[in-house]
Amino acid sequence: MKTYLDLHREFSADIDAELEAVLARTGGSAPAVRDAVARLLRHQPMKYPLSVLPLLVHGAETGEPAPALPLSAVHVLWWTSACYLDDLADGTGATLPEGLGLHEALLAAIVTGQLLPLQVLDSPRVPAAVRPALTAELLNSGVAAAEGQMEDMRKTRGEASRKAVLDAYRGKSGAPFGMITAMAATLSGARDERTDRWREFGHSFGILWQIFNDYEDLASGRHEDLLNGTVTYALACALEEASPGERQRILDLHAEARTSAQARSALAGVLLGPSVLAPCEKDIGEFRDEAYRVLDRLGGDEAYVSVLRRLVERTSRLRP
């Protein structure tokens, strides 16, 4: 059975070529910008190659994934910028791309995430008829993602409820994934109602992916979210399930975790424990089933829809 990793191996060179083409268009008039963006891309590689998502959606609609390659470049550019800016906002653990100062890196991130995706959409590789819709999707989703990120940054431990965390996740992760799946559907020529459903699928998948990412960080031992004091869904689950005394202990550990490896280890043990994982997995099951329901309603070329189903299933596993 083919997986999303198989598809990435098949198209990774083509995605790289799309990125090189974007940089080449920039380099003639702005060589310093091209150099800075290239350094940022090398510095912030994607751990999981979800740049194939638009290929899968376009393949599901038409049987042909390749026409969506420009959107794979948009996905890489957008998330490279977003992840780097997120690292800077967290205030710990962010490092500068080799050869760049802080202000250069910030400018490179802005160009990478905002200007270059627009340049991709304005290229001859994208039919002129769909460029306005794709551009509107990019801009609207970018604002929604920024709103979610701001909500996430402003949350305090006292506001760590499942609902509050999910509201932020719907913006910071749901919106950009909904953006790229809707853009791929639009590019494929899908009707508006199908594009809306693909956006809905992307939103659901984005929430799943964010929670998966949270737990992967815990299980890996990196504990970046604990170092940054991030209020995650796992923390919200733990606080809502805890007794009053245990809740205060968790809050104290979370406050200490920024500076104490011992506190990070103790809190990770709580968040990965069965009393927290079990209710979180129940919630995740509901998000997973909703993503399945949307895919079932959409249908399409089963060779690609089945890969999306397996990707949803893989993303729904929380146990390390």
Describe the structure.
- The protein has 320 residues and is mostly helical.
- Helix content is 77%, strand content 0%.
- It has 14 helices and no strands.
- The radius of gyration is 20 Å and the shape is globular.
- The protein starts with a helix and ends in a 5-residue tail after the last helix.
- The model has no long low-confidence stretch (mean pLDDT 91).
* Estimated share of beta-strand residues: under 5%
Q: Which fold name corresponds to the CATH topology?
A: Farnesyl Diphosphate Synthase
Please, how many domains? 1
So what's the overall shape?
A: globular
N-to-C SSE string, H for helix and E for strand: HHHHHHHHHHHHHH
CATH superfamily: Farnesyl Diphosphate Synthase
Determine and state the CATH class. Mainly Alpha
Main β sheet profile:
none
* Beta-strand segment tally: 0
Number of helices: 14
**What is the arithmetic mean of pLDDT?**
91
Task: Evaluate the radius of gyration.
Answer: 20 Å
CATH architecture: Orthogonal Bundle
Q: Which structural category do the helix and sheet elements fall into?
A: mainly alpha
Instruction: Please report the distance between the alpha carbons of the first and last residues.
Output: 24 Å
What percent of residues adopt helix (DSSP H or I)?
over 70%
| Low-pLDDT windows of residues | none
List keywords for this structure.
Farnesyl Diphosphate Synthase; mainly alpha; globular; 320 residues
